[in-house]
Amino acid sequence: MTTNASQHRDLIHRFVTETFGQYVLSHDDFRGDLSLYIKAEGLIPICEAFLEDDSLQVHFLADLTVVDWLDTERGDEHGRFEVVYNLWSMRHNYRFFLKVFLPDTEPRVASLTDLWQGANWMEREAYDLFGIDFVGHPNLEKILTPDDLDGFPLRKDFPLTYEVPHFTWNKDQPPEVIR
Amino acid sequence: MTTATAEAKTLTINMGPQHPSTHGVLRVELEVEGETVVKATPIIGYLHTGIEKTMESKLYYKAAPCTDRMDYLAPMSNNLGYALAVEKLMDIDVPDKVKWARVCLAELTRLNSHLVWLGTHALDLGAMSMVLYAMRDRESVVDIYEACGGQRMMTTYIRIGGLADDLPKDFDKRVRNTLKQIKAGIADYETLLKENQIFINRTKDVAVISAEDAINWSLSGPMLRGSGIARDLRKDAPYSGYENFDFKVCIGEKGDAYDRYRLRIEEMNESIKIIEQALDGMPEGPSRAHVPGVVLPPKLDVLEKMESMIFHFKIITHGFDAPVGGVYQGIESPKGELGFYIAGDGTNMPRRIRVRPPSFINLASLPKLCEGQMLSDVVCAIGSIDIVLGEVDR
Questions:
Q1: Taking the domains of chain B in order of start, what are their residue ranges?
Q2: Cβ(B339)–Cβ(B367) below 8 Å
Q3: Domain span at residue A108?
Q4: 218-277 in chain B: CB under 8 A from chain A
Q5: B96-124 and B75-90 are packed helices; what angle lies between their axes, rounded to 10 degrees?
Q6: B204 inside 8 A of chain A by CB
Q7: In the 8-state DSSP scheme, what is residue B58?
Q8: DSSP letters for chain A
Q9: A93 contacts B236? CB cut-off 8 A
C-alpha cells in the first residue's frame, strides 16, 4: 500500500467510525483493501452520508455482489450471505468495501436504488441469483434466469445439473436431469 | 376521432432479440408515441449460461478459459482481469517482462474491440463500407492473437502468474506492422465519418447523458468519459505497470454519441502510443513467475527436473488452496471497468467469482438514453454504449 492509499484508507475509516460507530462491527485490510463490516440497518445512513459529503466524494457505486458462505466457519459465525458493496471515492480515487452479513432465513437488506440508479440492475441480479430481498426496490424481478426456473442458482446448495438433450433415439423418454 | 386518440396514443413494439442492430440477443420493449420513444425496457438473459457458477465449480487454474468467453471481442482484457485478481488473492508478483507484454496485449485488445465497435456502429447508422475496413484492420490484431495463443478469439493466453507461453519470436515485427496498418486505417476512417453529415446528424445530441447522471448510473469507460469525467483505472488505480506509461485520458464534453465516437478514436491513438512504448521498453526475462505450487513451472523444467514435475502434477490435479477472504481487481477494459471479485474459502476452488460486467451496468442506462428521443435513435444509443451480450448475460 502506498502512503497515499493508506492516508485515504484512514480518511474513509475515520469518516465511517466517527459518525456511524454504532453500526460498524469490524474491519479488515485483506490484501490492502479496506473492508468495513456493518450492520444491515446502517447501510442507508452511511451511504447517504457518503453522497452528501464533498470532502471524500464517495459518489460512485462500482459494484454490488453477494457471497454465499454456506457451511463455512465464516458463514456460521456471521451469517450465510455476505453482501459486498464496492464503493469508489471520486476525489481520492480510492476503492473500499462495505460488507453486510445476512442470515440464512429471509435475507433482507435495504435497497440503494433511491441513492444510486446504477444499483437497480445490480440488485435485481443479486435477487435473481441469490434470492436476497432488497427492500424498497421499485422493480425486484428476475433479470438473467428464465421465468420458469425455480430457486436461486448461485446459492451453494443449488446443484450443478445437466439436462440430457433429446435426439431421435431418446425423444420418447421423459426429460432426465443429472445432478 | 377526437375521443379515440387519447386511449390509443402509445404503441408497444418489440425490438430484437434478433434485430441486427442490437448486437446479439438483446430485446428492447419500446413504447412509442408516433416516432417518439416514451418508455424503453431492455430485456436480457437470452444468453445466460451461468458462467460464474461454472467458474466456481472449477480449480482456479481451470476457470481461466471461461473468462474470454464473456466479452469475446476483448478476450485478453478478461484474461488479464482474472489473472490479476487471482494473483492478488494469492499475493504473487509477476516479472516485468510479463507486465509489459500484458499491457501490450491489453491495448491490442482495445484496438480490436474499438475497431469492431466502430465498424458495426457505423453500419447501424448507414455507413456501410466502414465495417469492411474496420474488420480488415481488426484481422491483423486477431492474427497476433493466433501467433501468441494459437487461437483467434478464445485466447486464454494470459494465465495466472504469467503468460501461457513465451511471446512469439517475431512478435515485435508483427505488432509494429499491425500498428502501421491501423494508423493508416484510422486516418481513412476520419475521412469517412468525421465530416460525414449523415453520421453527424445521427449522433450529435443523441443519447446524451450528463456527468452527474453518468456517475449515478455507475457507468464506466467511454460512457463515463464521454460525459467529461476523466475516470480511467489505468491512471487512477494503475495495474500491471501502467504507471510506467505515458498516455492521456481522453474525455468528451456533452456526453452524446458523437463525443463517444470521437473519444474511442482518440483512445485508439493513445493505445497505439502505449503499445509502441511497451515494445520499445520490453524487458528480457521469464514469461512466468516462479512461485512453486501456484504457477505452473516451464514445460522444459517439467521434463528435466523432478521438483518441477511434482509441482506440475500437483497443480493440475489438486490446484492450490486460496486463503479465506475476498479481493477485487478492476481493470479498464475497452468497454469500461471490468472487475473480478474473487472470494477464497481455504479450498482449491473459489467460493465466489463475481464479474463486474461493464456492458451490463452500462446497458442499464439505456432507458435514460433513449426516452424522449426518436425511435431511430435507439439504434444509435445501443451502438454507442458498446455492448457484448456474452458479457451482459454471462
A1: 51-363
A2: no
A3: 3-148
A4: 218-220, 229, 231, 236-237
A5: 140
A6: no
A7: S
A8: --HHHHHHHHHHHHHHHHHHTTTEEEEE-GGG-EEEEE-GGGHHHHHHHHHH-SSS---EEEEEEEEE-TTSHHHHHH-SEEEEEEEEETTTTEEEEEEEEE-SSS-EEE--TTT-TTHHHHHHHHHHHH--EEET-TT----SS-TT--S-TTSTTS---EEPPP-GGGTTSPP-EE-
A9: yes
- Return the closest-CA partner of residue B174 out of B283, B279, B68, B282: B279
Please tell me the predicted confidence (pLDDT) of residue A176: 64
Residue A9 lies in a domain: yes
pLDDT of residue B342: 93
Measure the CA–CA gap between A164 and A178, rounded to whole angstroms.
8
If you average pLDDT over residues B240-253, what whole number do you get? 89
Mean pLDDT on A98-124: 91
At the fourth CATH level, the homologous superfamily of domain B51-363 is Cytochrome-c3 Hydrogenase, chain B (1.10.645.10)
- Domain total in chain A: 1
Contact B364/A68, CB-based, under 8 Å? no
If 0-12 CB within 10 Å is exposed, 13-18 middle and 19+ buried, where does residue B240 land?
Answer: buried
Q: How far is B219 from chain A (nearest CA, A)?
A: 8
Q: What is the CATH classification number for the domain harbouring A40?
A: 3.30.460.80
Distance of CA B354 to the CA centre of its chain: 16
Q: Detail the DSSP E strand segments found in B19-106.
A: 27-33, 36-43
pLDDT at B20: 74
Structure confidence by residue, pLDDT tens digits, A137-158: 998 988 988 888 888 889 888 8
- Mean pLDDT of the A40-57 span: 88
A121 touches chain B (CB under 8 A): yes
A69 contacts on B by Cβ (under 8 Å): 345, 351
B354/A63 touch (CB, cutoff 8 Å), yes or no: yes
CA-based nearest residue to B98, from B234, B236, B241: B241
ipTM surpasses cut 0.95 = no
Show residues of chain A in contact with B50, CB under 8 Å: 153-154
Does A175 have pLDDT greater than 80?
Answer: no
Q: Positive or negative CA dihedral for B185, B187, B192, B197?
A: positive
Dist. CA B39–CA B30, nearest whole Å: 6
A174 or B229: which carries more pLDDT confidence? B229
Among A90, A95, A119, select the one facing B237 at the smallest CB separation. Answer: A95
Flag whether A155 is in a domain. Answer: no
Q: Is A179 a member of any domain?
A: no
The C-alpha cell that represents B226 in the structure block: 464521454
Within-domain flag for A168: no
The amino acid at B133 = Y
